[in-house]
Amino acid sequence: MFLRSVSCLVLILSLAGCSGARTVAGGLGGAVTAPLEDVGLRRERIPTVLLQAQANPYDMRNLDRCSTIGAEITRLDEALGPDVDEPPAPDGRNMGDRAVDAAAEATLDAIRNTATDFIPARSWIRALSGADQHSREVQAAIEAGRLRRAFLKGQGMRFNCAPPAAPRWFQPSRR
User: Which of 79, 97, 105, 166 could join 93 in a cystine, given CB atoms 3.0 to 4.6 angstroms apart?
Assistant: First the structure.
């Protein structure tokens, strides 16, 4: 039943557009293996820059120039994605492509949810396997990275730096 539903959805998405089928095909492995995270057999790796931010979010060693602050913010952007002051990148997709991609993402969510629903007492297993603890550690590292990025952009403003060492909207004054 489950595989028949997935096959039908993939067929519909492939008829609707290649991008939707590619999205499902590309994410299918991760969706089907989602239960491996619950039992602790697969864990999301925390980027080193986020672990460093967690250890010392206000560290300014070797960050005394705009170029070094900007480089550190770029490292954080690579781990976290764009900051809230960044405009969204234009994706060039039309309404139909966005609808197909949304359907593909919904298909992957349904597959992921179905795969994890097969685990009895999932919350207990996540607690016993350490998966819940690891999820909390990942979220804490992400929060520390965001905090560090905001702090560094504030320091960049103080040093009169241009973006990316300061928020995108900041205009350095001419001295």
Answer: 97
